[in-house]
Amino acid sequence: MLDAPNSGKKLVEVQGLKMHFPIYAGLFKTRVGEVKAVDGVSFHIYERETLGLVGESGCGKSTCGRAILRLYEPTDGSIRIDGEEIAKAGPDRLRQMRPTMQMVFQDPQASLNPRMTVAGIIGEPLDEHAKLSKREKLERIYELMDAVGLNRNFANRYPHEFSGGQRQRIGIARALALNPKFIVCDEPIAALDVSIQAQVVNLLEDLQEQFGLTYLFISHDLSMVRHIADRVAVMYLGQIAELAPRDPLYETPLHPYTQALLSAVPEPDPREETRRTRILLKGDVPSPSNPPRGCNFCTRCPQVMDICSREEPEFREVQPGRYVACHLYNETTTTAGQTAASEAQSA
Amino acid sequence: MFIFTLRRLLTAIPTLLLISLVIFLLLELAPGDPMANQPLTIPPDVREKMREALGLGEPVHVRYWKWLVQFVWVEPLYLFDSAFGTSFAEGEQRIVSWQFRSPVFDTIWQRMPQTLWVVGMAYVVGVLIALPIGIISAYRQYSWFDQVGTFISMIGFSVPTFFTGVLLIVIFSVELGWFPSIYDTTLVVNSWDTFVQQVRQMAMPVFVLALFNAAQISRFMRASMLDNLNQDYVRTARAKGMRERTVVLVHVLRNSLIPVVTVIALGVPQVFGGAIITEQVFKVNGLGQLLITAIYANDLPMVQTLSVIFAVLIVLFNLIADILYGLLDPRIRYD
């Protein structure tokens, strides 16, 4: 995973994605504002790569993942998956593109229809998008169940009869049914207990190897992202604060928010743990319906400057492959430009 | 499931016995004299003999026991005899109505078709219009369709049937003369003309009752759909790339129907119970009207028998609703 070959082909390109939810209030339910859940996010994901998307609860990670797959109607921005623009695709075109892009959902219980059997859940996309005979379909369902490590005898059972980990395997098999290229994993392990988390993450890695998948791995579990991701994007209040290859990001985080976030990860070694210094952020996350002026981290940033509350920092490449949105790095703009080639080395 | 059904049927027996006893005692306590309709010129001693002839001379527990034996043993035997031509029940005393001097069950049997046609049809029509209204209202929540649907449901809910019934009679029978205001039970449907006549006389009572039923069921349907529309598995279905129609009609509707089907099942006994007021307004001589006239006439065996039959139906359809729930929702297993 560490040295995953970077084919250089960008499978997913997101430009200035915005997802605003309107707020209606008052007697006549007029529109009084909007929750800026995702506010101008740009990144790309290379083929066969895993991009980790981390951030605290409510920062817009899941919304971002859903908007990329057009499970929400994005307010603005462009999303290209495998060369196709999907942000503006019509419903029929979108439906035809669904096989390319799939999602593994956070809650494995709620995201499976309680009245369908496992075979029904996994097989339904095949009915819609593939022309298979009954036998071929069953064969494919068994194949998928084997791939995710589910016993074939469970095909006629209902989701509630399974444990959390098994349900998530059903969800993964369902996502794999149409041979997708790109899978958004929306906190796939958050609802599972720790022993099962590792199993599911390893399964996801094996499947990536086997089927050449590209993941957007959304999580708030920093150590798990460190394990699985090739590059990591850190989100704060609807925007990406920092995006960098995994190792440099974890070793030398640039953005003050990333530094604070990483300092919260506990250390397994107790001697190290006592020496660890935590950066404690003061105050609460501002409301996404009313983000602060300038940099949206300026209200809590330990290294805040005058310019931060006036101007919004640009999301720029400060070192090859390392992007950060922070005024602290304004002067180091020289290396921008020679990107993709050197990025492969640092990854 | 079979064991569950059997257990529920067995526990229903004491429940129904208790209900029948309570009804019997309530009627016993009720003021009113079965002899009240007889001419005042009947001498007191003759009057006393007549009371004894009706069985009123016996103590309460004896009368209850006699009624119970007739209800659970003699009447089913008669039914069996008439179905298979046997003669097990010969010589046994049936439950006799005090006002008609004929067996209660014969009268009920005569009244049943009117009730089933009018009230039953109203229920079917109500369900058939309620389901699509509920589905569309939920899918397009707060749209014009939903607002209008909500408004009409509120009217259906809150305006009593004796008002809508009379209103319809005034408009469509008195002013416009489109429909007859009185239901003609003697009409025999044997030609196209009589069929049209039957439809015309059913139209208004069916409409009144269907509005009332549809108002309730469409609200249930809407609420249940709204519950499910925002569920995660619906998003999963969309992510699979299913057609919107499949998402709504297969994933959402099938899950939403579970509570609605049980509500519909629980409403069926009311159909057999007849719509007392509506039948009265349109002069449909069905079971509801039978019950009301029996109460007026102090016809205790009739009131007792009808009430207990309604109780049996309610208990039975509760059980059916539970079984349906188990069949529809794989998460519920009764064993």
Can you walk through the features of this model?
The complex is a heterodimer of chains A (347) and B (335). Chain A is of the alpha/beta class and 347 residues long. In chain A, 31% of the residues lie in helices and 24% in strands. Chain A has eleven helices and twelve strands. In chain A, a hairpin with a 2-residue loop joins strand 9 and strand 10. In chain A, helix 3 (118-129) runs parallel beside helix 5 and helix 5 (164-176) runs parallel beside helix 6. Chain A is globular. With 335 residues, chain B is mostly helical. Chain B has a domain at 110-328: MetI-like fold (Orthogonal Bundle). Chain B is 75% helix and 0% strand. Chain B has twelve helices and no strands. Chain B has helices spanning 2-29, 44-53, 60-84, 104-139, 144-158, 161-175, 192-229, 232-239, 244-273, 276-282, 287-296, 300-328. In chain B, helix 5 (144-158) packs across helix 7 (192-229) and helix 8 packs across helix 9. The mean pLDDT of chain B is 87.
Topology:
The complex is a heterodimer of chains A (347) and B (335).
Chain A: E1 10-25, E2 30-46, E3 50-54, H1 61-68, E4 76-81, E5 84-85, H2 91-97, E6 101-104, H3 118-129, H4 134-147, H5 164-176, E7 182-186, H6 194-211, E8 214-218, H7 222-228, E9 231-236, E10 239-245, H8 246-251, H9 256-263, H10 270-275, E11 315-319, E12 322-325, H11 340-346
Parallel strand pairs in A: 3-8, 3-9, 6-7, 7-8
Antiparallel strand pairs in A: 1-2, 1-4, 4-5, 9-10, 10-12, 11-12
Helix pairs in contact in A: 3-4, 3-5, 4-5, 5-6
Chain B: H1 2-29, H2 44-53, H3 60-84, H4 104-139, H5 144-158, H6 161-175, H7 192-229, H8 232-239, H9 244-273, H10 276-282, H11 287-296, H12 300-328
Helix pairs in contact in B: 1-12, 4-5, 4-7, 4-9, 5-7, 6-7, 6-10, 7-9, 8-9, 9-12, 10-11, 11-12
